[in-house]
Amino acid sequence: MGWRRYLDTAFLKDRLIRLWKEERRFLWIGLGACLFVIVFARLVGFSARDVADVIFQFALLALLAGAGYFVLQRLCCMERHSKLCEQGLIVDRLIKSTELLAHEKESVRIGGIYGLWRIAVDSQNQNDKRTVLDILCSFVRASYGDTVVRFSDAGLSVSSRNGAFHSTEMADDAEVEKKEHSTRVRPDVQTVLDFLGYQLEDLQLSARYRLNLNGAMLQHARLKGANLLGAYLEEANLEGADLEGCNLKAAEMSRVRLAGAHLDGANLSEANLFLANLEGSSLFIANLERSYLAGAYLAGGNLLGAKLKGANLKKTNLAEANLSSAIFSSRKQLGTAKLHGVDLAGAVFLDECKQNTGGPAPEDQTQEA
Prior knowledge:
The protein has helices spanning 9-44, 48-100, 106-122, 126-141, 187-198, 350-357, 362-368; strands at 147-151, 156-159, 164-167, 176-180, 327-328, 348-349. The protein is mainly α. It has a 4-stranded antiparallel sheet with strand order 3-2-1-4, with no helix packed on it. A two-stranded parallel sheet has the order 5-6. The longest helix is centred in the N-terminal third of the chain and has 53 residues, at 48-100.
C-alpha cells in the first residue's frame, strides 16, 4: 500500500532533505519569531510559565499555518497535473480524429469531422480551438471531389482518393483525361461548411477567426444564411453555390468564381471582388456598398435593387446586367464600366435624387425611418 513507504527510513530521509532545501526559509523565520517572543517576554517581565505558554501557542499556530501551506501546495500540484493530463488527452483525440480525415470511407471522414468539432467545443484553450479550425479549413481546401487523371498510352495515373501515384515510361503522344464524377461538394466537405458557417459562435472565440478557404472547390455548396465574415476565398470556385443571405462582409474574394451563384440578399459590403467572375449570378437586393469590383465580370447578372453605394466599379463588365432599382452614389461610378446592353432608366443615383427633390435620397429616408 502507498502508506507503507513512509515507514522506509531512506524515503523519510529523502523527504526531509527535500523539505529542508525547499522550505528551510520558513523554519528560519519561525525560529527567529520564537527568539523574538522570548526576548520580548523577558524584557516585559513575564514569568517562565507565561513565556512557555506563548511559545507553545505560537508553535501551534505555525504548525497549522505550515499544514495549510502544504495542503495548498499539494492542491496546486494536483491542478497542474490535471491540466497536463487533460491537454495530453486532447492532443491524443486531435491526432486520432485528424487521421480519420484521410480515410477512404466517407462515413469515417464525417466521424472524424464531428470528433474534431467536439474537441473545439470541449477545450477551454483558445489555441486548441484555432488548431481545429485550421485543420478543417485545410481539409476543405484539399478536397477536389472525385478526380481521376490518366495517361492513355503510358504515363501517370493519379487517384485523388488515396493520393497514390503510379508512374511508367511516358510516351510523347500521351493524352490526359480528367474526369469529375460530381460538380457538387462531397457530403463530408458540406459537413465542415455547415460547422464553419453556422456554428462558429458556439466555440466562444476570444478574437475573430477569419476562415481560410483560398482556392477551395465549392461548386453548388449550400451556404444559405451562413456567416463568413472576413473569410478568405481568393480564387475559390463557388459556381452555382447557394449563398442567399450569406454574410460575406469584408471577405477577400479576388478572382473568385461565382458564375451562376445565388447571392440574393447577401452582405458583400467592403468585400474585395477584384477580377471576380459573377457571370449570370443573382444579386437581388444584395449589399455591395464600398465593395471593390474593379475588373469584375458581372455580365448577365441580376442586380435588381442591389446597393452599390461607394462601390469601386472601375472597368467592371456589366454587359446585359439587370440594374433596375440598383442604388449608386452617382453616375461617375460607372465611368469606366462596360455597360453594353444595360438599361439605366430604372437605376437610382443618390446625388441626382438629392438635386431633384431637394431632400434626402430614398435610401437616406429609409435609414432615418
